[in-house]
Structure formats: C-alpha cells, structure tokens
Design a protein that fits this description.
about 200 residues, alpha+beta, five-stranded mixed beta sheet, about 35% strand
Length: about 200
C-alpha cells in the first residue's frame, strides 16, 4: 500500500504545504502555507509580480472524528501594478480551501449549506453543535442562495404566505407551479406589494 503525505490526505488537490499540526484535547490545529502561483487581481485580472506581505487566516474546517478542526492558512498579499486598476493590493485565495470574507473552509461551507437547505435555522444549528461545527442559525440561513429567475414569465403562478418570524413578520412567496420553483419572495403580505 502506497503511503500518502499529510497534504494528500487532508487537502487533496489543493496547493498547500502542511507546516505543523497541533493537537489539543478538543481542537486539531493544522498550520499550512499556500504554494500556488502568484494570484490574479480580482478587479483587473492581471497576474501579480510583486509580493506585499503575508499574514495568517484562521479557517474553521470539517471536524475530524470527534474533534473540531481549524486551519491556520498563511496567505500572501500582492501589489497590483496596473496603473488603471483602482485596487492597489489584494490577497490570494487558495482554490478549494478559502474564499473572500469567509472564516470557514470551502468544504465546511458546503457542508453547512447542505445542512441549512435540509433543516433550516434552529434544527440545523442544533445538528451542527452535535457534529462539533461552529454555526449559528443566522449564519446557516445566510448561506442559502436565492433561486435563479427564469427567462420566461410563469404560466401558472402560485401565491402563499409564510412567516419570517412566527407571529410577528409575514411574507409572500410566488411559485411557478408548472416548473415547481420559487419565482420571488415578497417582504410582506399586503395586496399592494403583491400587485406591484
């Protein structure tokens, strides 16, 4: 049987190098460094030539066994040398591991999104606690993306009310009955909003 490296087991197909693994009683901390080629500016799309600095990001990762896992990822900040670009510096993103403004790995975000789709807010948060994943109900609900709007107008439109917050705030959902998908969600249940 061929032996695999730690990188191949924990981060398959991701351009990182494991520097250190720290094991405490309930959290496994993996320190990694990006080994990818220099990044591309997100605004103008030019490849970076000069490095500005490095810093460390802390990302929650999928649990390993009965323990929480955290990745400390050292990423590089680059200069954007294009004169017409408004962005002077930018931080690299490691595909398959990190995304902008996220404090969890891409894999964990996918797990949390799947749990939120299946269970909703509070039940999903309870399951995440049992699975040793840090996620509250509002974070889980923010991961849900709005459905895409079809190009054609629906032939049969279904209308129903629902509660954003039971007993306090109600909204209206519009459904394309023929396609079986949500067309729009209205912020209240008044006839003026529906007519508009």
């Amino acid at each position: 049987m061929a032996s695999k490296t730690v990188e191949a087991v924990l981060f398959p197909g991701i351009d990182v190098r494991v520097e250190r693994v720290s094991d405490s009683s309930d959290v496994l901390v993996v320190e990694v460094v990006s080994t990818a080629r220099p990044g591309w500016c997100p605004d103008c799309g030019t490849q970076a030539r000069r490095r500005h600095s490095t810093y460390q990001r802390a990302l929650d990762e999928r649990p390993l066994g009965s323990r929480r896992a955290m990745v400390r990822l050292r990423v590089r900040r680059y200069f954007c040398d294009r004169k017409s670009c408004s962005r002077k510096t930018f931080v690299e993103q490691v595909p398959g591991l990190s995304e902008r403004h996220r404090r969890s790995s891409t894999g964990l975000t996918g797990w949390l999104r799947s749990i939120a789709i299946e269970l909703g807010g509070r039940p999903a948060a309870r399951l995440c606690r049992r699975l040793r994943m840090v996620a509250g109900r509002t974070r889980l609900l923010r991961l849900l993306v709005a459905p895409s709007v079809p190009d054609r107008a629906p032939r049969v439109l279904g209308v129903d009310e629902f509660a954003f917050r039971k007993g306090c705030t109600y909204g209206t959902v519009l459904v394309d009955v023929a396609a079986g998908r949500v067309v729009d969600v209205l912020p209240d249940r008044t006839c003026e909003t529906f007519a508009a």
